[in-house]
Amino acid sequence: MIKRRTGLLDIAKQVGVSKATVSRYLNTPDLVSPSLQKRISTVIETLGYLPNKVPNMLSHAKSHAIGVFLPSVTSQIFTDVLQGIEKITDENNYQVMIAHTGRYKDKEEMRLRSLLSYNIDGLILTERNHSPASIKMIQLANIPVVEIMDSVTPCIDMAVGYDNFKASKNMVLRMIKADKKNIVYLSTQLNERGILRKEGYEAAMAAHNLKSFTILSNEIPSYALGEKLLNQILNEYPQVDGIFCCNDSLALGVLFGCQRLNIPIPQQIAIAGFHGYDIGQSVNPKLSSVLTPRFEMGKIAAEILLQRLNGKIITSNVVELPVKYIEGESIANFHN
């Protein structure tokens, strides 16, 4: 037999007060005397009461919940972002409702339709390319929206991110400075950020009159895919002396593949990644990479979202954060 969930009436009967008094304690405890607060609190703890937020969330009142859309729930990139978001939401008594999209627009649309039905107060989105239906729903919801991971692509409302084009161009220029001329760009699931990184790579190569060579894959980035694409490069572009990857998962796979094939790094092939995973600094040679400000980005996104919800004026709707460049040892071995 399924046990019935404890309700306000159960608490009221146990304490000997009205249901309205229990509700008043839960919503505005200062309006209830300290002695009665203690009695109600004791009964709530004894009965194991769990508040039902749905009625409030479906009303016109604030839900104190925000929706956060992530393309992956296992990647270090987005766990770092989420930690930054939750640092701020926890401090301000807001709940985070997470939606996993896998970078699919139809999946984002489905999740968005569901979350908006709960009357969430705001949205933090990781992608910029939305379906027409998703954009329409966001417009009708009339809630603040922050899009992250990119400071260049036009945004719906507000954005917090970094310049993917500039970050990629600067990393490739570092590889060229290390006397690498035949650099290949590896990318997966080419979204707006991937396109900007590809364009940054091409701009750096063009600035030195070097030929660009790009390999794209529709598979999810992984170490295994990086090694697989390395073999493809060696077959299709054997003169390769440098590989720039759109993320560290691919870059580490390339690195492990080179080691398996006894290809010296960086002497024969230099390798650079993007995002600066912790594990990249625990391998030998250490991986050169673009370190993105993921925690800080999540934190600022939540801050400006809550500022808007509290009626504060946002001086700029786009916040661009700097990246850092991890020199590592996979572009040039500075110890030799």
Strand content: 15-25%
Which range best describes the helical content: under 10%, 10-25%, 25-40%, 40-55%, 55-70% or over 70%?
A: 40-55%
How many separate domains make up the residues? Answer: 3
Q: Radius of gyration, rounded?
A: 25 Å
User: What would you give as the CATH superfamily of the largest domain?
Assistant: Response regulator
Which keywords apply here?
44% helix, 12 strands, alpha/beta, 434 Repressor (Amino-terminal Domain), 16% strand, six-stranded mixed beta sheet, Rossmann fold, elongated, 3 domains, 336 residues, single chain
Quick rundown:
The chain has 336 residues and is of the alpha/beta class.
Write up this protein.
The chain starts with 7 loop residues before the first helix and ends in a 10-residue tail after the last strand. The protein has 12 helices and 12 strands. It has 3 domains: 8-52, 434 Repressor (Amino-terminal Domain); 63-162 and 294-321, Rossmann fold (3-Layer(aba) Sandwich); 164-291, Rossmann fold (3-Layer(aba) Sandwich), CATH 3.40.50.2300. The model has no long low-confidence stretch (mean pLDDT 91). It has 336 residues and is α/β, with parallel strands linked by helices. It has helices at 8-15, 19-27, 34-47, 54-58, 76-91, 105-116, 132-141, 164-177, 192-207, 223-236, 248-260, 294-309; strands spanning 65-70, 95-100, 122-125, 145-148, 158-161, 183-188, 213-217, 242-245, 270-275, 288-291, 318-320, 324-326. The protein has a 6-stranded parallel β-sheet, with helices on both faces.
